[in-house]
């Protein structure tokens, strides 16, 4: 027993463990999570930016290995799902975290209001079309979770259908993880007050007006319903193989640090390797040096 | 006359002018262009890297404006086409130049050997599907030009068909520029010797073996035929509205600097603007402050 403990203590506890939402089906109470907290994080913004820069190099290196491995048949890939209220920083995370990577290997998809064609199909149809290929890092800015979030809050589907959707989502994500997709689901947890501050900033700056719509204030009026819908989605769809991570998002530097760190931990766990040459290196070198 | 000249002298001559392939239908002789040259460029690698970093901020700012403008109906977008021999640095350009941008607004497509489905369609079919949407910056790593390059060298299509393709490509690109797409075609001009050095480096480094295939040496044997095919493509398809830029690519720092600079000049010429608010800013601020 003592031995086991000391072994565990040796291993640095990962951020993944710290931020992971329990998957036992317990009720999730978002009110009990402080959106300004910085669990496991650096002490301030300056330190965070320095660590993010360092992680950037490691992330890009691991991304290259993941891609290289795929050229030799390794089918593994990563899917990062970003969810959160308006202004919680989904777009900012893509810019600052995914911006650390080689854009060639990233498949980014921002899901908007479904088009008439998308509405003709089951809700996972457009999701499947946007999945990353082997070796890629896929990024979803919003996702199939909108179909149990806004769909619930706005009553876009009957309750019975919503209930079925949680199960469908879980089966879908299980099939992904069974097909070499590492699923990293991040809920960017923003406070009501911070959302007001961010919306006001968008109003104060003419170069941010384009990001604002009066409809954002109407959505804000539905805050409690959204929080409840998120609590349910986190509770029903936090599974051992496709866990949810709850990321306090009131501080942008912590949010970027935490998502970078989560991505890093998952890529390090995959530990992709450069493939070995399947050709005669020495012979090729000779051919090239002989004048070819 | 003197006045005109002095006006021209006032304007800093852009890199676009310097690298633009003449569009009068004259024969292009690639042998007369030094692939190690650095026309208009900084004096050394160190200076280039510093300038690239500075340009990165301006590029990202212009990209945001382009995107913001598209949310208010501006349909303009940019398409950067990268062509060049193996190891000329198409992938490296995406990593280092496009890596300066917000990945959300980039639509990157690497064209490989056509799939059986793609082969069933006209050669521009797969190209049209990968075009950037309004506000986006599209990047093609290889393109429809492969259909007059490898297709010519490997005899994948009859000569009469190849001849028709130049005209089709020109019509296609005219239709793009007529539809608010700024087309920036970059030929990364590499020397035969530098290609050998880069292939040898891939052999020397086990972490680069995955980028190498013995077939690369066979393709290299066709170097003169490829150069001729490029000369023809540059000659036939350099048009006033969709010009070709010839970028000496033996020095990676110059290549990255030059493509960054070309992109910057084109975005600055577009001069996209943040859209004005189409809502009552003051009223929204009041609603938010009143407790919403």
Automatic annotation (TrEMBL), chains A, B:
<protein>
    <submittedName>
        <fullName>Polyphosphate kinase 2 family protein</fullName>
    </submittedName>
</protein>
<dbReference type="GO" id="GO:0008976">
    <property type="term" value="F:polyphosphate kinase activity"/>
</dbReference>
<dbReference type="Pfam" id="PF03976">
    <property type="entry name" value="PPK2"/>
</dbReference>
<dbReference type="InterPro" id="IPR016898">
    <property type="entry name" value="Polyphosphate_phosphotransfera"/>
</dbReference>
<dbReference type="InterPro" id="IPR022488">
    <property type="entry name" value="PPK2-related"/>
</dbReference>
<keyword id="KW-0418">Kinase</keyword>
<dbReference type="GO" id="GO:0006797">
    <property type="term" value="P:polyphosphate metabolic process"/>
</dbReference>
<dbReference type="InterPro" id="IPR027417">
    <property type="entry name" value="P-loop_NTPase"/>
</dbReference>
<feature type="domain" description="Polyphosphate kinase-2-related">
    <location>
        <begin position="45"/>
        <end position="272"/>
    </location>
</feature>
<feature type="region of interest" description="Disordered">
    <location>
        <begin position="1"/>
        <end position="43"/>
    </location>
</feature>
<keyword id="KW-0808">Transferase</keyword>
<dbReference type="InterPro" id="IPR022300">
    <property type="entry name" value="PPK2-rel_1"/>
</dbReference>
């Amino acid at each position: 027993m003592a031995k086991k403990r000391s072994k565990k203590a040796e291993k640095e506890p990962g951020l993944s463990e710290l931020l992971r939402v329990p998957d036992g089906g317990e009720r999730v109470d978002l009110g009990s999570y402080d959106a300004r907290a910085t669990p496991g994080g650096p002490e301030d913004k300056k330190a965070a930016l320095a660590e993010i820069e360092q992680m950037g190099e490691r992330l890009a290196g691991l991304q290259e290995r993941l891609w290289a491995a795929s050229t030799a048949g390794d089918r593994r890939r990563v899917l990062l799902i970003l969810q959160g209220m308006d202004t919680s920083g989904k777009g900012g995370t893509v810019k600052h975290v995914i911006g650390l990577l080689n854009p060639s290997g990233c498949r980014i998809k921002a899901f908007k209001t479904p088009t008439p064609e998308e509405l003709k199909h089951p809700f996972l149809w457009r999701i499947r079309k946007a999945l990353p290929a082997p070796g890629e890092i896929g990024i979803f800015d919003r996702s199939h979770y909108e179909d149990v979030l806004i769909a619930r809050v706005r009553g876009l589907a009957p309750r019975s259908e919503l209930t079925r959707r949680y199960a469908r989502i879980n089966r879908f994500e299980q099939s992904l993880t069974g097909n070499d997709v590492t699923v990293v689901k991040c809920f960017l947890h923003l406070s009501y007050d911070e959302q007001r501050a961010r919306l006001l900033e968008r109003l104060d700056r003419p170069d941010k007006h384009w990001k604002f719509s009066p409809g954002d204030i109407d959505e804000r009026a539905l805050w409690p319903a959204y929080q409840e819908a998120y609590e349910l989605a986190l509770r029903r769809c936090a599974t051992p193989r496709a866990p949810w991570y709850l990321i306090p998002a009131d501080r942008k530097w912590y949010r970027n640090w935490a998502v970078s760190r989560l991505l890093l931990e998952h890529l390090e766990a995959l530990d992709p390797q450069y493939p070995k040459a399947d050709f005669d290196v020495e012979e090729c070198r000779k051919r090239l040096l002989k004048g070819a």
